[in-house]
């Protein structure tokens, strides 16, 4: 299995275009998937850190923070897979967290989310107000290529209005786990 991580900027005239779609490529190469693109409706302009969509998949990044005035209601982040893949969940690390900093409660965190896919699936979810990983369940497995997560409202930040997501990614292993369990149950 080959696994590489890098970031290539696809769209955006400057880092962190507030109010303009911004996209980054995750060139991860594994036996399951050959990269995908992450786009967002906006991104907080870069200062000390970059808050582009790539932040949700780069382990040393600052996550993604929307870049419009207010708490980002209506802003979205979208995963665009190169090929359809059977998915039943996303994994979310809510909020903005930098190692060694007290920043989680200072920024707004997604609360209610609308997840829409290229197959017409729409799911309303409430994210927990925790930085612990949480699964955003989509019901049964669906062969998906595009998954858009729209912010409907947020847990307020104590210092900043920007709504941030530390990590968001598809659980590519879930289908293999299900297939393994079914094989074990059937005696295979």
Feature tags:
44% strand, mainly beta, globular, 9-stranded antiparallel beta sheet
What would your notes on this structure say?
- The chain has 188 residues and is mainly β.
- The chain has a single domain, classed as Jelly Rolls (Sandwich), CATH 2.60.120.
- Strands 1, 2, 3, 4, 5, 6, 7, 8 and 9 form a nine-stranded antiparallel β-sheet that branches.
- The N terminus is likely disordered.
In brief, what are we looking at here?
The protein is mostly beta strands and about 190 residues long.
What name does the CATH topology carry?
Jelly Rolls
Which oligomerization state do the chains in this entry correspond to? single chain
The helix content is: under 10%
Low-confidence stretches: 1-17
* Gyration radius, rounded: 17 Å
Q: What number of structural domains do the residues give?
A: 1
Element order, helices and strands?
EEEEEEEEEH
Produce the secondary structure layout:
Elements: E1 8-11, E2 22-29, E3 34-40, E4 64-65, E5 76-94, E6 109-117, E7 122-126, E8 134-155, E9 164-170, H1 174-185
Antiparallel strand pairs: 1-2, 2-3, 3-5, 4-9, 5-8, 5-9, 6-7, 6-8
């Amino acid at each position: 299995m080959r696994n590489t991580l890098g970031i290539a900027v696809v769209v955006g005239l400057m880092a962190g275009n507030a109010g303009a779609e911004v996209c980054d490529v995750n060139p991860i190469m594994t036996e399951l998937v050959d990269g995908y693109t992450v786009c967002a409706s906006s991104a907080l302009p870069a200062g000390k850190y970059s808050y582009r969509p790539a932040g949700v998949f780069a382990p040393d990044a600052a996550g993604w923070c929307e870049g419009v005035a207010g708490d980002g209601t209506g802003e979205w982040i979208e995963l665009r897979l190169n090929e359809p893949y059977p998915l039943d969940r996303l994994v979310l690390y809510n909020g903005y967290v930098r190692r060694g900093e007290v920043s989680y409660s200072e920024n707004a965190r997604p609360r209610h989310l609308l997840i829409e896919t290229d197959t017409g699936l729409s799911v309303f979810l409430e994210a927990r107000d925790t930085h612990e990983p949480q699964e955003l369940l989509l019901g049964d497995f669906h062969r998906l290529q595009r998954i858009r997560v729209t912010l409907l409202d947020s847990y307020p930040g104590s210092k900043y209005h920007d709504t941030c997501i530390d990590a968001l990614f598809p659980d590519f292993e879930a289908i293999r786990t299900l297939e393994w369990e079914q094989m074990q149950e059937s005696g295979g």
